[in-house]
Amino acid sequence: xxTTHTLAVEHLTxxxxxxxVIDSLDLAVPPGRITAIVGxxxxxxxxxxxxxxxxxxxxxxxxxxxxxxxxxLPAKQLARTLGLLPQSPTAPEGITVADLVGRGRNPHQxxxxxxxxxxxxxxxxxxxxxxxxxxxxxxxxELSGGQRQRVWIAMALAQQTDLLLLDEPTTFxxxxxxxxxLDLLTDLNLTRGTTIVMVLHDLNLAARYADHLVALAGGRxxxxxxxxxxxxxxxxxxVFGLESQVITDPTSGKPLMLPIGRHHVxxxxxxxxxxxxxx
Length: 279
Known about the structure:
six-stranded mixed sheet, globular, disordered C terminus
């Protein structure tokens, strides 16, 4: 079932010290869909995600969850609705997979309450969904990068939130593990209707897996919409300072960006002729 929770930012301004990173941003996240945020390095992608999850207070504007400011919501109430998987999370030394995934149940625990059968079921379901049940008794330190990332996602799933924010969930993974993680998130979205917002560096994976693409440039919203509307040659040129061709991916039907470097200039690129989606 698709979530009915809404997440949006209104006139949001974010920064560190005297530096403004996000400037008066307005953005609505489509409920029950997968949104990917893309943009050049230091454009504010991770900063935006941190503010959405209440880790960074706005300098101006608001982050709204169901119309209420997230920075005014009780921490546990927010954690039962919205989960965050930060970039390169660190596990306590020696912790087992089962114990780490079990920490996803913390928002559901009350003072003096005991671990329940409901908690057991949530952890088991999260391990099964991420195909990590056989790793339950192993130390997280012993796992490969792909295994470790699936375990962190399992912890987020055990939290049983309707909205899940992920900052670079494919960082440091080889291409097979990147696809594995993104397939898992798509399964979660399709089977549970979880709203997913993720920051991705890879434009083509973002376009392939997202229903909604958000491109940031210089701390401002450049474009938002379906991947075919957003991922254009002009967008790549403006947001990344890169010449490219954008064609239709023969596998997914989504836009596929082909970068044009100085040493790989085709006749068409030299004359400014490119292939764009929908042309």
